[in-house]
Write a structure and sequence with these properties.
α2 packs across α3. Strands 1-2-3-4-5 form a 5-stranded mixed beta sheet, sandwiched between helices. The chain has one domain: Gcn5-related N-acetyltransferase (GNAT) (Aminopeptidase), CATH 3.40.630.30. The chain is built from 5 helices and 5 strands. β2 and β3 form a beta hairpin. The N and C termini lie far apart (55 Å). By secondary structure, it is α+β, with helices and mostly antiparallel strands.
Amino acid sequence: MQKRERISLPFLILRIKTLLMYRIEERSIHPEDYLQIRATTSWRSFDRQVVEKALANDLYAVSVYHQDRLVGIGRVIGDGAIYFYIQDIIVIPGYQSRGVGTFIMEQIERFLKTAAPQHAFIGLMAAEGVLRFYQKFGYRPRPEDRPGMFKIMP
C-alpha cells in the first residue's frame, strides 16, 4: 500500500486561501504579456516578431493572475515526444515566495504526466538560487560526467 504524506491543517488552510487568490489559465501566452513579464527579469529581450514565433510553438503554456494582473507564467517546449523543456518560469518580484511558482510547476507537471511517454527527457535551466525549488518536483542537477552546454547566438 502506498504511504500518504500527512499535510498539516495550517498548511492546508494557507494552500486553500492561496488557491482562491489566483486564477490559472492554460492557454497560449499573448506576446505583449510575455514581453512585459520577461522585462521583470534580468534576461535578454527579444523583438515581438521573434516572441510571436516562439510562443506559437509552445507545447504547453500556463499563466497565473491575481485579480486581472498577470503575475507568473510557465512554458513547455520541445518535440512533444522524446524531449520536453520547461522554459520561462517567471514570477514577478512582488509575488515571489507566495506559491505562484509552485502553482505553475504543478500545472506543468500535470501536463507532462499526460503528454510525456515513459523515458522521455524533461529538461530545464534554472536561475541561480532556485535549485531546491525544482528539486521539490524531482529535478536534479546533471552529473559532472554529463555536463550540459548552451550557446547564445550573437
